């Protein structure tokens, strides 16, 4: 029998933001299609953006 451990719990804080209604509707529609929450979408989007920024900074430093 496998002993499955529970995923690690990450500390979290609330982030309140205002978005244009049209943008929020697009996000919610996408999330419904992909069976994901808006929280998952926002978290993924922020991580992707930070990764892009980090890569751009590294490129500039090497020139």
Descriptive key words:
extended; about 60% helix; about 60 residues; mainly alpha
Helix content: 55-70%
User: Largest sheet, described in full?
Assistant: none
Secondary structure category: mainly alpha
Could you state the order of secondary-structure elements as H and E?
HH
The end-to-end span amounts to 54 Å
Number of helices: 2
DSSP, total strands: 0
Mean pLDDT across residues: 88
Coarse shape: extended
What ranges have pLDDT less than 50 throughout 5 or more consecutive residues? none
Determine the strand fraction and express it as a percent band: under 5%
Q: What Rg, in angstroms, do the CA atoms define?
A: 17 Å
Describe the structure concisely.
With 63 residues, this protein is mainly α.
Description:
The protein is mainly α. The chain has a domain at 21-62. It contains 2 helices and no strands.
Layout of SSEs?
Layout (H helix, E strand, L loop, with lengths): L20 H14 L3 H25 L1
């Amino acid at each position: 029998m496998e002993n499955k451990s529970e995923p690690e719990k990450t500390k979290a804080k609330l982030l309140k933001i205002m978005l244009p209604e049209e943008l929020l509707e697009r996000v919610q529609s996408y999330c419904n299609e992909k069976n994901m929450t808006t929280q998952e979408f926002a978290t993924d989007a922020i991580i992707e953006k930070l990764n892009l920024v980090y890569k751009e900074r590294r490129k500039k430093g090497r020139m």
